[in-house]
Amino acid sequence: MKKDSNPVFRFGLLLSLLLFVHSTRTSAQEVEDEREFDYTEGSEKGPKHWGELNKKWAACNNGDMQSPIDLSNQRVKVIPKLGDLKRNYKLCNATVKNRGHDISVQWLGDAGSIKINGTEYKLKQGHWHSPSEHAINGRRYDLELHMVHESSDPSGKCKIAVVGLLYKIGQPDQFLSKMMSSIMSMADKKEDRNVGVIHPGDIKMGGRKYYKYMGSLTVPPCTQGVIWIINKKMRTVSRQQVKQLRLAVHDYAQMNARPLQPANLREVHLFGPRRQA
What we know:
The protein has helices spanning 7-26, 50-53, 59-62, 174-184, 239-248; strands at residues 76-79, 85-89, 92-98, 103-107, 112-116, 119-129, 135-136, 139-140, 143-150, 160-169, 192-198, 210-216, 224-231, 235-237, 268-271. By secondary structure, it is of the alpha+beta class. Residues 7-27 have low confidence and may be disordered.
């Protein structure tokens, strides 16, 4: 068979492939323009309507593995081992970004990774929600940090893994104390600040027990197939720090937490070290 040597045809084929790959990748990423959606109950752009605002966000309304959920004891299966979760973070340049609906720290380069069941997920960014999005036995806490990781493994089904940390009111969080001057310098401004070299390990994880389940992004496009790792140990944050995170953004909302979603019989595993006899 004679090969098609038409350069225009080959260029068009290559362009179509690149556009497909790009659209597949971006559809899995969080929407950063806060004008496209909000958290206000009863709003036309509120959580109940996210799936209607954009056809690419249909999973927000129709998905059966949505996040966040209630990590209730009734559905948690205890696994008496540490599980295959390994962290390897590195010093890396970072920026703090006011995304309008939240404040995020974005690492610009190789900030290290976590490894889950042999698959490496590189750390991309972290952001805060208040109150917490996930609940434990029906209780939502004062703040939740999401550390978003992505895998470049083309054979992997799960491209995103998020490590979640829950906070209750108490002593100030040291990492937030370090970042707060940069955060407040952007109050009510949608922009970013270079904050120099930041080690993700400065974010203290706490205990060795963690919940794990399959869910989704908690903001549009609500992409499913996300591995969630929620550290069981509760960290502390000051009331002032929580208030400052909300004052810094310019959506004027009292909260930026998505309502709890149906668990739909999903299993939640609680990993932890085996007790000594």
